[in-house]
Design goal:
Two copies of one chain form a homodimer.
Chain A: H1 4-9, H2 11-32, H3 37-46, H4 65-76, H5 85-106, E1 110-111, E2 114-115, H6 117-121, H7 123-143, H8 149-174, H9 183-208, H10 213-240, H11 252-255, H12 261-267, H13 272-281, H14 288-300, H15 303-325, H16 329-342
Antiparallel strand pairs in A: 1-2
């Protein structure tokens, strides 16, 4: 199933992701297995392929959105996806390097329902394993004999720098008072942290299809805008929850005092509700009633409507960029299905 | 001055390093300045170009051994060094990424007579800046239009993985009892941690000169063997000091209970002096008399002679590999002068 069917169905994306994991995971895993010594152990654990003691584990795979975008972009531009499997694996490896280091920096203790690698192996080993995974991702591309591999390697390296900038900005925001972070800064951070790698995935897929500069740029813009739409919707779910999902409880981001996009929009609204929210965010602990009051204040300050409107606008722009890169709607169907999936409009 | 003169003089290497800094630093600095936000700040501080507050600093440059090897290898194989300046800068950037992360992992508080970056900017910002520097080094090579750039990028990425493996092994050794670390493991660790990047520097210079696989491999082997000779001599200085240098006090490595190569060789000697050393290393603190006794035990156990012999043997092998890659001694002179310099036989 491809094209418009996949979008209408929504199951299309799930099948695309399954297919991607089947195509990419053997390459990804065999590459990770080349890492020397305990770096291999840390990486195999992080990917969910091994337990902490090195025994085989049932896979808890990531969703494989990024490699799916690489392969779908290659197909959408008329090339065989088989030629881009290494590139897809490299992108997923780079993504997981950033997760491994983000968990250290953010001191997060859980990832994919398991203890994070640094809590199991210690910061030094997790840090060093992440360094090696980053270099391995870029090496995979640089060594790939495909004619687009050097350009793809440069693009992925540039994207890693942008991901670092996004993560650094995120950390810096945490240390600032809520109203010291502007909405523009917040949008720029979300673009760097979430949009950049989705954009690079689409761009690398396009490069592997032999696309020209304009198509590659349009593919990158599609991924970036879809990524920002995803972040906006994720932030909405972090406040109001998702009736169709049990993963993230309503209010979780408010309890954590997260400076998410709807929150920052509300704080910047200049409304009395924005002031109420600022007062609530100044409290060190928010009880259940305060969380409800904060969610209500975000809504009355216009943060919810703004985020929903922005998400729709970003998706609209994403679709326009996609049509520019891939004028045939049937050929663009898989890309669109994946974008709809990441923004959780379908499942 | 080139060739045999430089070796005889010893000042030749100093001049080569000065010339390298003049040729490479503008490229290196302008690339580092492209890093976004506070990652730029951290990197500029680490390189000694800025104070912690972002004001310009008098340079405390690294010795630039690695970029000097890149350029010397390119020249030795008959190409213009100007074409390899970006590659030389990329290697120095990669080297500094590893220093930045090593300081975090080893919790070192001083580097080049200044507080280390993580003590100034915190672990998160230093970690993220290092990630970006690694990607930037590989990006510089991948984006370089030189025909050898993709191969050089792949080689540098592979080398970064090996450096990570070396650093990880070093950390693991620290956690083990002195006699649980074998001499072979210790040599393999030193090769990965010190030899790999000196080898890659020579190999990348050769690639940029359009050399064939055999010359590239011989250049890599030259750098690796010279790197190991350097490490052995550095380890000797860490125990007995260097009458011609004031930098490292005699006994410093013994005070720190370092499992350096002469120490591990002595512990593995099966001699009574090796047992004496093991007894001394089991003490949590070594006073001045104990340090003298430990140095004496390493010597009587044969650790000093072994290390001196190994260093000479490694340098001999290095020279053989160099002659294979560059049969004309005059053309090989600068490479040899640099190798002699790093092993501190001349200054």
């Amino acid at each position: 199933m491809t094209g418009a069917d996949a979008v209408a169905d929504g199951q299309g994306a799930v099948r695309l992701l399954d297919r991607t994991r089947t195509a990419v995971n053997p390459q990804l895993r065999s590459t990770v297995e080349t890492l020397p010594g305990s770096m291999r152990r840390v990486a195999m654990y992080h990917f969910g392929w091994e337990h902490a003691d090195g025994t085989p584990a049932a896979e808890h795979p990531g969703k494989a959105i990024r490699p799916a975008l690489v392969l779908a972009a290659t197909r959408a531009l008329g090339a065989e996806e088989a030629g881009a499997v290494k590139a897809a694996a490299a992108v997923e490896l780079a993504h997981n390097f950033t997760l491994l280091h983000d968990d250290i920096v953010d001191e997060d203790v859980t990832r994919r329902h398991r203890p994070t690698a640094w809590t199991v192996f210690g910061v030094p080993d997790a840090l060093i394993a992440g360094d090696a995974m980053s270099a391995l991702a870029l090496r995979m591309l640089a060594e790939d004999p495909h004619p687009a591999s050097a350009a793809a390697s440069a693009r992925l390296a540039a994207c890693i720098i942008e991901l670092c900038a996004g993560q650094q900005a995120d950390c810096a925001f945490e240390r600032r008072a809520p109203r010291e972070v502007s909405l523009d800064e917040c949008l720029a951070m979300a673009t760097a942290k979430t949009g950049a790698l989705l954009g690079a995935s689409c761009a690398i897929g396009a490069l592997y299809a032999g696309a020209g500069d304009e198509e590659v740029a349009a593919m990158d813009a599609f991924g970036r805008e879809a990524g920002l739409a995803f972040q906006l919707i994720d932030d909405l779910i972090g406040i109001w929850g998702d009736p169709e999902r049990t993963g993230k409880p309503a209010g979780a981001d408010l309890v954590a005092h997260k400076k998410s996009l709807p929150v920052v929009a509300a704080l910047a609204s200049g409304t009395p509700a924005g002031d109420e929210l600022a007062e609530l965010y100044a409290r060190p602990v928010l009880d259940e009633a305060a969380v409800r009051a904060a969610a209500d204040a975000v809504e009355r300050a216009g943060g919810r409507d703004w985020a929903q409107g922005q998400a729709a606008e970003r998706m609209g722009r994403a679709v326009e960029h996609l049509a520019q890169a891939v004028p045939d709607p049937a050929a663009a169907g898989d890309m669109l299905a994946l974008a709809e999936f990441v923004t959780r409009r379908t499942r």
